Write the structure tokens for this entry.
Amino acid sequence: MENRIVIESPDGRFGAYISRPATLPAPVVVVLQELFGVNADIRVTCDELAAQGYTAIAPDLFWRQEPDVDLDVRSEADWQRGLRLYGAYDRDAGARDIAQTIRAAVKLPQSTGRVALQGYCLGALMAFITAARHEVDAAVAYHGGDTEKYLGEVGSLRAPLLMHLGEEDEFISKAAQAEIKAALAGKPNATVYSYPGQRPACSRHNGTHYTAASATLANGRTKEFLHRHLQ
């Protein structure tokens, strides 16, 4: 099980996928899942980050409800199962779980001690919440639905934040996107990029609305951002 570690928390133990770079020690990127669990897309994302020189860790965010969820984005049944898990997910407890993952990442024998969050959908929202409540070196959020409900925590956000929003995202209304941009406008360490004409998951592996140009642009921005804040 060389690609799996266990995170200890006050509430219990939960698993995480880990992908290691060729050269160590290395900074860590904690990759936060969508509603599909730590599935093939998330594992590939971790492997790509490892190829860039990071240790990538994807914790099981649904462990309190159902451990080891691994859903197929192309399956309607899996979509419905993921939506049920998403609806019942305890975001406050989740932020604590992610904070425990950050602490575990810092303590890894071959970690440089620098840690960033990189989340998608649910994971993007959790990257924002966790960065506002806990210590982390940087955070990246791809299409985080419900972020507008937590904008009261912007004042606590100290880490550099990079956010990607598809302008036609049906889960983040244009009004919500405007709220997010306005709330973050006064934060010199926060950057929000909009992608005209794009819907959610436009830059995610196997995304229904995947667009190569948008993915290349967004992921290039993320790569530069992580390098600047972690290396």
